[in-house]
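User: Second chain of the day. Same drill as before.
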Amino acid sequence: MSIHAFKRESIKDRPDGKYIKDITGIQALMMNIYPNRTDSEVYLSDKIDATELMKYLEKKNAEHPDYKTTLFHCALTALTRMVKERPCLNRFIQGRRMYQRYEISLSFVAKRLFKDGAEEALMVLTPSDEDTLDSISRQIVGDVTQMRKNPAKKTGSDAVIDNLAKLPRPLLMLVSKLIRILDFWGHLPHFVWETDVNYSTILASNLGSIKCPSVYHHLNNYGTNSIMVTIGTLHKEQVLMPDGSVQVRDMIDIGATLDERIADGFYFARSLKLIKYIFANPELLDQPIGTPSEFEYK
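Assistant: Same format as last time:
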């Protein structure tokens, strides 16, 4: 569904989110004491057991040798399922107000060419409740492939950014300030934010693809993005299992930076447990995103 299909029900609503009136007192206070997103960051660093997921991928890719589904595709789909079941993760704060996004949006940065100095392209996906791993994977591959066929051609936010960068510095400063003011009041034009990764639910970075571990990545005061996720390199590691045995497992490092104003630590912790559950039960990725996982939160 296009974001243009959503209409404001209140003067306080934004074109990209519905105003949330019923929030806790501490959330209302924090939005005013800590109005900047970078003042409200919490960072999580953890390891996820991807052994079952890798078995699942090996079987899936063997059945379809003409098409390769990757770990990153699975991670993005799992993150989408997590946000669908944990809707507070799809909130953002702008203009000292909290909003609930109308859609789940995932974004990532892709290199236009695999060489030093090559520019990066901004990619944004908005999966629907009917999407599964297969459809999300093909959308990612299709968008990236299309971009790399013509690396010199830029559209969406890439084109807007390049055009703004050509402005004289005083004018660029003025335009930047105007953008901030319009965004604060929820009147920023669609063409500015619709394909901007800084306005997505989750901004993900696949560092494992360049053999790099997960890292801390800051949030930005610009935009509405409340969650940044970095996915590191898949590696073997000895793990102490619940039955007391020690096994060599496929592990993946993950780092997440979150805006603590959108939810509390208890909510974040349960969301992490859900991600680990999906990785341990990868067949869930074949189900539509709108299908509940039936995970028991304890």
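The longest helix spans residues 133-149.

User: Great, on to the next one.
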